[in-house]
Amino acid sequence: MKQTKIVFLGGVHGVGKTSFVRDFAQKYAVPCYSASELIFSTSVNSLKETTVSSLDANQVRLLTKIAYLKSEHSSFLLDGHFTLFTSCGVVPIAAEHFKNMGIFQLVLFIDSPCSIYQRLQKRGGIEIPLAAIVEHQKAEKVHSLKVAKELNIPLSVFDLRERKSFNVANELIYNVFSQSI
Hints:
It contains 7 helices and 7 strands. It starts with a strand and ends with a helix. It has a single domain (5-33, 75-178), classed as Rossmann fold (3-Layer(aba) Sandwich). The protein has helices spanning 17-28, 35-41, 52-72, 95-101, 113-123, 130-151, 165-178; strands at 5-10, 32-34, 75-80, 83-86, 89-92, 103-110, 155-159. By secondary structure, it is an alpha/beta fold. Helix 2 (35-41) crosses helix 3.
């Protein structure tokens, strides 16, 4: 049986994952999903659960949805996080969860904390201090490297302050999916 190629695109809130995924899906007609939307579409609680105690339950919901998506698609792009910013601080998502998802390629987007802060301000209602964005982004990078090494999954990190990063990320992800056809 052929492995479903899942490209996981991680990064902090406001880094540009959703915009990239939306554009990529439109341009290439590749199925794209948000881990948060998959989790909360299966939640019996309509409130977004982001407490540490709910993280494992959320990962189980995500794995259930991913198992279904694997039966429907030969490949897809999944946007999410390597760590979560909670009221208890930054909490890493266990490498085991990435292993259980069957990730083929890891991608991390990083950007200037000031740019991220400005994007979050434009969204309205999201008030994350600049220092917290810096801390979370650093934790995302450190943990993404750890997950990639532990699971032996390729990781590409794109610094969006470099204009060409979107194009290079686009090409890399397209190449992964074009080999699935």
